[in-house]
Amino acid sequence: MQDLSDGVARFRREVFPAKAELFARLAGTHRPTTLFIGCSDARVVPELITQSEPGELFVVRTAGNLVPAYAPGPDGVTASIEYAVAVLGVTGIVVCGHSACGAMTALAEGTDLGAAPSVADWLRHADASVARTASTGPDRVSALVRENVRAQLANLATHPSVARARAAGTLTLRGWVYDIRSGGVAEVGPVTDRRAALTPRTI
Ligand SMILES: [Zn+2]
C-alpha cells in the first residue's frame, strides 16, 4: 500500500493546491451532471476518458458494467441510480462498455466460473446480451460488449426514477464502448435501433 500513500502525499502537495478553489466549492456542493456506469476494470477510468473534473461525474462501476433490471428491494446499484437521478438530478446517463472486458470475454468464451460462483451469478444479468449476440467468430467478444451496452440501457430504462425523468424529458441515456488500445469511444444505439447497432459511431 506504500505506493497509494505516496500518491496521496503527492496529491496533497501538488494537485490539491492547484484546484483549491474547486475543492472549496465542492466541499459544500454536490451537483454532478452525469451518471457514468462503467466496468470495474482498472483500465477504464471515467474521469480520465472524459476529462471531467471532480464533482462532474456520479460514478457506478460494476463487473461488466451490468445494470440489473429494476426489482424492489435493497440493492446498491438501484439505490445509486435513484439517488443520482431523483435526488441529484443528473441530466444524462452513460453506460460504458470496453474492449477486452474480462466479464464479456468469460461469457463469450463460456469460461468455467465454478470457482467464482458470485461472478457467475452476477453475469446472469448479461443473459439477454448473450442471447442477442449473433456473432460466433473472433469478433464475438467485441460484438457482445456492444450488445451488452444496449441490454444494460434497456435494463436501466426499467428503473422507475429513470422512467419518470425520461417521461419528463429531463434525462438522456447514451451507450458507449471505450477502446483501451486506441483511447477511442464509439457510441452505440439502443436495442430498437438495429442500424445504429451495426455501425457504432466513433465520437
Ligand atoms: Zn470490463
Structural write-up:
This protein is α/β, with parallel strands linked by helices and 203 residues long. 43% of the residues lie in helices and 16% in strands. It contains 10 helices and 6 strands, in the order H-H-E-H-E-H-E-H-H-H-H-H-E-E-H-E. It has helices spanning 2-15, 20-26, 46-50, 76-87, 102-109, 117-122, 127-132, 140-156, 160-167, 194-198; strands spanning 34-39, 57-62, 92-98, 172-178, 185-188, 201-202. A 6-stranded mixed sheet has the order 2-1-3-4-5-6. Bound molecules: zinc ion. Zinc ion binds at residues 39, 41, 64, 98, 101-103.
Summarize the structure.
The protein is an alpha/beta fold and 203 residues long. It has ten helices and six strands.
Strand order of the largest sheet: 2-1-3-4-5-6
The main sheet comes to: 6 strands, mixed
The share of residues in extended strands comes to 15-25%
The helical percent reads 40-55%
The molecules bound to the chains, other than polymers, are:
zinc ion
Order of helices and strands: HHEHEHEHHHHHEEHE
First-residue to last-residue Cα separation: 37 Å
* Uncertain runs: 193-198
Average residue pLDDT: 93
Q: Determine the number of helices (DSSP H or I, runs of at least 4 residues).
A: 10
Shape: globular
> What would you call the structural class?
alpha/beta
User: How many DSSP E strands?
Assistant: 6
